Structure formats: structure tokens, C-alpha cells
Amino acid sequence: MKRILVFVFIALASAAAAAQDLAVRAGVLHTGTGETIENGAVVVRDGKITAVGPADRVSIPDGFEVVEAAVVTPGLVDARSTVGMSGAMNQPHDQDQLERSSAIQPELRAIDAYNPRERLVEWLREHGITTVHTGHGPGEIISGQTLIAKTVGDTVDHAVIVPAFALSATLGDGATGHSRPTPGNRSKAVAMLREQLIKAREYRQKRERAEDDKLPDRNLSLEALVAVLEGEMPLIVEVHRHNDIMTTLRLAEEFGFRLILAGAADAHLLIDEIRTAGVEVMLHPTMIRARGSASETANFSFTTAAKLIEAGIPVAMQSGYEGYVPKTRVVLFEAGLLLGYGVSFDQALEMVTMAPARMLGIADRVGSIEVGKDGDLALFDGDPFEYTSNVVGTIIDGRRVSSARR
Amino acid sequence: MKNWMMAALLAMWGASAAWADVTAFTGARVIPVDGAEISDGVLIVEDGRIRAVGARDRVRIPRGAEIVELDAGTVIMPGIVDTHSHVGEVSGGDRSGPIQPETRALDSINVRSSGIKRALAGGITSVNVMPGSGHLISGQTIYLKLRAGNSVMDLAYRFEDGAPAGGLKMANGTNSLRDAPFPGTRAKSAALVRATYVKAQEYQAKLERADEEKDRPARDLALEALGEVLAGKRMVHFHSHRHDDLLTAIRLRDEFGFRMVLHHTSEGWRVADEIAAADVPVSLILLDSPGGKLETLHLEAQSAPALEQAGAKLAFHTDDWITDSRYFLRMAAFGIRAGMSREAAMVALTQAGADMLDLGDRVGSLTPGKDADFVILSGDPFSVRTRVLQTWVEGVKRFDLADPDDRLVAEGGFNALTDDDGAGHLHGMGPHANHSTGAWQ
Question: Under an 8 A CB cutoff, do A329 and B289 touch?
């Protein structure tokens, strides 16, 4: 019996490996490096890209399944989402993106809550998104950690490629929109964050100076903040209003952490300041909604992306968090809408491929169709960003993981 | 009563000063909706109405007409009709009870709201502004023509008797399920609605039986509004998502004989044949992902082609702020993406919606004699690269992308929105009313 089981296991494993061999022929191949190849071909072996170029110069090994599509792009990368933490049903049992018990909880790990089988993860996969940065969402000063996952995998271990990428933070109205007495306003929220970062700084010093047998007690919360102070994890701050963006830049300067601005509705008012600070932006979805001038996203503009790109500021598109319908946005659509507002096709594609890949530190694996990278591809029947084109397939690590027509 | 009619007449008179000249728009691809597309077309506007439409070599341009030569590649289409929107900071029923037909959207509209400007920036010229869906009956809706005006009455379409035209907003499913006095189940929801309509029938019967003034029952604003529904004057706009709720709405319509449009119709694809057989028009919403609440888990864009193929009459709506009026064209394009025909998608943005608001003889197509409501686009209506260049209402330019103030609204930016724009989904329901289940839609 044991022998049979071992045999079955080996057979399955080798079948799986074989499934990671695939070739794709594309009428138009956008490699994500700025290059567009008419009649292109890509070969994926053991899940990695081994050849890419014009079809007549790429030889497809015998026995490889060949998939054809009118247009092929790199698998898309969603710079920031909450899918898998937040689910489509929007019932208490499928909403883990925000813990309301206190304002600062850096110890909350995304891997302890991420549901790789969530319908919204599948929804992104069906739309050509192969990598998603997801986890704790906006809504508390520090809501917890984030992770980076491929949009497949039956368990979190199979899905995740970076188990703890960043801490998710929020300033402005978003940090005070809860039912607790504190933080009740902007000043208090910033004071609380500074106090905690200073505690983390002191904790780090104590650890460094202590003899091995006299280390301070472990503190999961401060350990995560130390990782931010040491540059191991960026602090992603969801912030929209211009003065809150300036506050955030001030904090980054005081504590020297790697700051990524998220949302940033008013970024178009502060192009010079953001460029000078050398900060990256995970821009709000183009179709973010504002409820009038009282809402802190009231000044958002469809032209912000074009302005940031023109200034040379690194900018990636996020699907963000949605609390109602639609329950998630799709970065393919959010980047596409920018084509009417001063962003070129290549720039829009970069916002959902290489730009987020670089920001997430995974540009050596994903974001473009280059030899040595993961075999992640999105297949379309026409211009990927046109409303009336369809996604017709998704490939991750050389496996066809979606054939849905979306 | 007379005062506002006078004001409306004066407003129309004032605007008419600009109509003295005939204007001919030439060079665009014209999509008249009532006939085939014209590749190099002419649209002639006179006195706020459409005088002629046709190919450049087939339409005579009157001597003295102002000629506006449009760039090649531009498109003229009819003004878009949004059958379901919450622009203008609208409100209706409050939290006091589930059935409030006496409340009027009319009494809440802020005509200076940037929501109305956003609608114009999206090419929308006629819009059904509705109270929310947190009630079984949340109030009277209002049909607005997005002409300039200082009062909601300047914008209101009128019934034949001069009263502002609109429908009645009803809903079933989960949004109206709440603590008492709201219903707690679907069966209770239907029972409450049936009891209310029975009462309205009895009230009408009493009115009809009364020979003299003294025999008439006391005025009842709620039952009067329902009387207009029973008489077929006021259309029911019925918010409903799940397949069984859609059929419940049809059952109620059949029992009481009111006229009805189904709205949202998220699971329309599951009961497309039943909807078509019931001859009930559908105003659809398509969204970027399913879920957000249980009854929209199966909201699929395939409802658009499924209902088209079943033969149902189909329009779209923004449900602004659920989707922004500024990119309403996108929703019809997403219908095409899911398999709908281009022709049906265009009709769904225009004539079909106009018919659902009983405005089909005035707007919805570029038919001579109809109001000169039209949109000039930079390119194909269903391309992501296309922008709305101008929106015209009754021959008056109401949105111009070349105007910096209009452009600010169209693209967003500092101070683009007024104070309460987008609040139409929340009014009266409390600021955090059931946020997790979103009971205000």
C-alpha cells in the first residue's frame, strides 16, 4: 500500500511539473519592457520563461502545449488590494481586512487570515491579474501586515511569495472613522504613531545593547515596527488630503522609514514635494468615489496618474479596498480608464506590471515577459484596455489557471 | 402653483432668445438611434428642437444657419438617459418606517450640486433621480431635464397636468430588511406592500363613489401617490437583485396592475425568459466585480446579453454614486464586452431609458421634432479613449470640455465637487447605516 501511495505521489508531482511547460503565440506581444512584438512567442519551461521573441525566431520544444491569443501581456500585478482578507459576501465571517480592537496593531499577520480560495481572488485571476499585494487594509493607524501572493494556490503557503511585505497604515479621516474615543482627530493619531515608533526605536536599542541573557521581553508589535525602522518593511500609508500627505512625508523624514503613499487623492497638488521626498505612490483606483467636498477624497482627479508619471514619480495602480458594491476593483479597468486622461498605453501597462513589481521588490520574478522570470501571462482577444475586449485566459507559473472569458 | 409655472415659462423664454438662429452641426459620425448611423452627417437644430438629421449630401442646410464643423472622428449621439441616479443630494423616506410614498425627491434636490454637472459631463441630459432603497416604498422619484435653472421646477419634466413628473421607488430583498417597524423577512416585505396597495385601492374606490365633496375621504398624501401608481400615471421603479425577488416584484405588479420597471436586476440572467415573458422592462447595472452583499453575489454582466436575447426591453443606469455619471458610457460598453449587440447597447443608453420614463416621444433619439438633446464625443461611444466633448440640452450647450470650469468637473481636481455631492445614497438613513451590508443602495 505504502509503495502504491509513493508511486501515485511521484506521478502527480511529475504531472504537475509537466503542466508548467507551455508555449504561447501572440498576434501582439507586449513584453512589459516597453517592447511590442508582432507575431510573438513565449516559451515557459518548469514555470519559468525560457524564450521570448518573434514567433519565427523562437523554437517551441516538441510536445509543448501551444496556446494562441490575439494579444498577450505579462501577468498583471495589483499594487495593493484586500482581496482574500475581504470576501465577496461582505458578511462578518469573510471580512478580515480590518481589526477594530485598537488603533495600532503591527503584529497582525496577513498570512494568518488570507483565504486563497476567496471568490474575489478568483475574480482578479480571471481578469489577468497573477500577483496581488493584499492584506490588512486602511482604517486604523496601523492595521497590520500585508503579503504578496500569486492569485492561485489552495493554501496560503502555496499562494504566498512574500509572507510579510509591509505594514499597512492610515492617517487623516480614515484613521479616526471608528467608534472608539481615541484617536479622535488628526493630531492625536499622529502623536500615537510617533509614540509607538519611538518605543520601537528604544526597544531596538535595548535589544542591541543587551547581553544575550538579558534581552528585553519579546514584543511582537514592536518587532514589526523595528522591521519598518530598519528598512526591512516599508510603511504603506493610506492618506488622501494634502496636509495629511505632508504630515506623512514629515514622519518619514523623522523616522527614516521607507514610505509608500497609498491612495493619495491630493497628490496632484504636491507633485514637487512628493518628487523631492523620493516617495513611491500606490495611486487610488481611477474610479474611486467621493462624497462631496466633506470627504477627504473630494479632490481626486482622473489626471493625477499622468501628472505623477510626467514628474518621474514611481506610480503603480491599486485596486484598494471597497466596502460595498463592487466589492473589489480590477486594476486592468482602473489603469485602462487613464487612457482618456493623458496616460499612454505603455504607461498604463507599466502601472499594472513593472511599476508595482519594482515597488513590491519582486521585479526579478514578475512584471515583464523576460527570460528567467515566472511564466505569468494574461491573454486577450484585443486591446487589453479597451472596454469591449475580453480577457480570454490567464497563465501562472506556466499553468493555464483561467480560461474564463471576462 | 401659478408662480412657478410663470417662472418656468420665463426661463424658457429667456433661453429662447438664443434660439433665433438655426444651427447645423456637420462633419461628425451621427448615431440617430432611430435609424442607421451616418458616417458624414448633419444635425440641424432649431428653437431647441431637432429639425433635421441626415447625410451631408442629403440634408439642406437653411440659409443663414450657423454651421459648426466638427472634427472628423467625432460622434454625435442622442443625449443619454439615466433611468436611476442619486445625483442632486436627493432624499426620500427616513428611518421612521418602510413605506413612505408621500415623500418626494422634488423636495430635496439641490440644482447647484456638482452631481448634476457630473451627469452633464458624462453626456446625460435626462435623469430619473430616486430616493434610496432602504425602504419597501421610499418615495416619489423625479424626472429631470438637465437644463439650467435655479429651482428644481425649472428642471422637472411635467405630467400633462403640469405637476412634476416622476415615478415611485420601491424595493425588495435585503436593503429594506431591518429592525421594526421595518420588515424582517421577504414574506413580510411582500405582505406589507400588498396591504398598502389594498388600502390604496379602497381609498380610490371611496373617491370614485363620493358624489359630493363631503363624502370624500380625508386627503392622504401617501394613498394619493399610490393612486397615481394604480392609475398608471406614475411608473413603479422597483429595485431588486435576486432571481426570486425579481419574480416577487412581477407578482406584485400583476396583482395590482401597476406599471413597472425592474432596476439593478443583478440575477436577470437567471430569469431572463420569465422577465421577457412578463413584458417588464429592465434597467440594468453592471459592476466591476460581484458581491458586496449577498444578493449581488451573482451580479453578472451576462444579464445584458441574456436579457437582450430573451427579448426584454433593456436600459442601463448609473445608480450614481455607485457608478459615476461621468463614465456612464462605459457601462453600455461592458454590456457589449459581455456579448450584447452594439445596437442594443446604444438603445439602452437612450431610447429604451426614455421609454421607461414615459419620455420616449420627446427624447431618446435624434428624431426631427424631438428636443435637441445630444452629445458630441471625441470618438467611438464605446472606446475607453473617447471623451465627452460637449453636452447640449434643448439646443443649449450645457457642458463644454474646453471650458475650464466644466473641465474641472469632468476630470476632477481641487474643489471640483460641492459639499454634499454623492450623499443621495445616505440621506435619512444615518451616516453609518448598516455600512457592512450597505443598506442604503
Answer: yes
